[in-house]
Amino acid sequence: MIFGRVKPLDAILETAAKKSLHRSLGAFQLTMLGIGAVIGTGIFVLTAEAAQKAGPGMMVSFIIAGVVCAFAALCYAEMASMVPVSGSAYTYSYAVMGELIAWLVGWALILEYAVAAGAVSVGWSGYVVGLIQHSFGIHIPDSLVLGPFDGGLINLPAMAIASLVTWLLVIGTKESATVNAVLVAIKVTALTLFIVLAVPVMNTPQFSPFAPTGFVGISMAAASIFFAYVGFDAVSTAAEETKNPQRNMPIGLIGSLAICTIFYMLVAAGVIGAPGLSTQPVVDAAGAVLEPGSRELAQQCAARAAEGFKDVVCSKEALAFTLREIGWPQIGNLLGLAAGLALPSVILMMMFGQTRIFFVMSRDGLLPRAFSKIHPTFHTPHVITIITGVFVVLFSAFFPVGQLANISNSGTLFAFAAVSIAVMVLRRTDPGRHRPFRTPLVNITAPISILGCVYLFVSLDHKSIILFVIWAVIGLGVYFGYSRSRSHVGRGVIETHEDDAGIPPPPVPPVN
């Protein structure tokens, strides 16, 4: 039965109640938490990707992605407040819709975390390589800093940063909340400075044609830009620490997403309107828009650069590139430095999130027991950290940032749709359950969230959708071939462990 083997919600909540937290967060604190968690990586690394898909129309894409996130966040908040435990959407699904759905959600979250860590590693590489070339005049061959799809051979800087983060996670890192706050401040300051310098010199003609690829292109860009909003669930999971959550959670969630959307649109406007630059999609000889991250686009970009064209879509560091071209080369270098300093912490948290999901699934018997093995000296789940690190290194070495972001988004969208369905199911099957936060107008909000996630999912490129389907099929094979017969719940062994015993604490709060 597809909805069989449900993990007992009462047992989960009973142990979760033992670690109830002080309710101290108001609407303002939640909003600030959301802004700090969301603003960052995506806008740094995906602006060029969005421009190639939608041109100036990417400004609409930011609005679409933000609205879908808002509805998904309201559903996520109800589950997070009811089941404030480790495992995220995987645990919520296990408690409501059963083991098979939970397994698929956990399997999809592998795409969200591990592949996203690869995407940020590639984005970091683009900014750091640009910083080195423009600050020190050292030219690094494309073959060593770009993957084969981008016209190179291997992305060595991306591999290096992913390897370093893996090593840090194995030995254990105690990066403080203060350091994390400083890194968030660096990112926000850098982007604010970009807006202050770029927006006042915008040229209105640069915005025409506004939607060269039509609404299809805007939708495709929205599906990619969704990556820029990942992190909003940090607000949802703070429900148990929130004063008057029914009032303050929607304000914090929607407020932070609205501010981030406006922030992103201002950054996009500064890029689009930059005099002398072009954010129109690059096309081939027949006039067809080239696929972002493709060898064909790399070749066409090289040819256009030789002719003197300055295309934002061809840059691996779009924001720093824009500042340099509008007369602020040193500020552009500083922005590259800011990205170089701040993005590794994002890679760290994404890889940590991946190992945490693996850890919980292993402890439930769905993955080999070795996955939850703790190092005797470092007290970290070293086996699964190393396995995760190897895959992140390989992803970052050979794939372009946009493709990795899209694949990551496919897993995230599946997980958020599953949580939205779980909210509706639990409202019907257990209406009397205590809910510190209740999704407003759930019969409208949840379906919009589900449809929004489906809409963005089908707007992804075909390769990402096909890869997700293949990944899901592999996951089903692993489940029926290995996990189902070893599941603790299936064998009648109820081990909730939802007090997080044995799980190493996160280095810092999630931050994008």
UniProtKB/TrEMBL annotation:
Q: Name one GO molecular function term.
A: amino acid transmembrane transporter activity
Listed GO cellular component terms?
A: membrane
One Pfam family it belongs to: AA_permease
The superkingdom listed in its UniProt entry is: Bacteria
Q: What is its main location?
A: membrane
Transmembrane stretches, start-end: 27-46, 58-77, 89-110, 152-170, 182-202, 214-232, 253-274, 334-359, 380-401, 407-426, 438-458, 464-482
Q: What does the UniProt keyword field contain?
A: Membrane, Transmembrane, Transmembrane helix, Transport
Give the location in the cell: Membrane
UniProt membrane topology term = Multi-pass membrane protein
Q: Which residues form the Amino acid permease/ SLC12A domain?
A: 30-460
What is the name of this protein? Amino acid permease
Instruction: Tell me what organism the protein belongs to.
Output: Sphingomonas crocodyli
